[in-house]
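Q: Hi! First time doing this. I have a protein sequence and I read that you can turn it into a structure. Is that right? Here it is:
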Amino acid sequence: MSYKECTILPATGGFGEYQAGEFNGEKFSDAETLADALREGAGFELFELGKEELPEGLEDIRGRIHNQPERVFGGLDAQDVPHYFGISEFPQS
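A: Yes, that's right. Below is the predicted 3D structure, encoded as structure tokens:
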């Protein structure tokens, strides 16, 4: 199996729902290696939703994401705007 990342954005229908975007970028053979790369490339601290305490301004949006990835991460940029990312497993090709 391999793992890929996606960006999670507010759903076009609104109502506090989110949508997982296209899974793109490099495939990783290990989810933890991809999570580390995601954290390094974000430019701000990322937290895994459901596993880490979240800072004020960051919500646990799991359950409100269409096509929800297996793992969801979030962080606040320098202007305290929340950003969300996901990691899912894909068959090796």
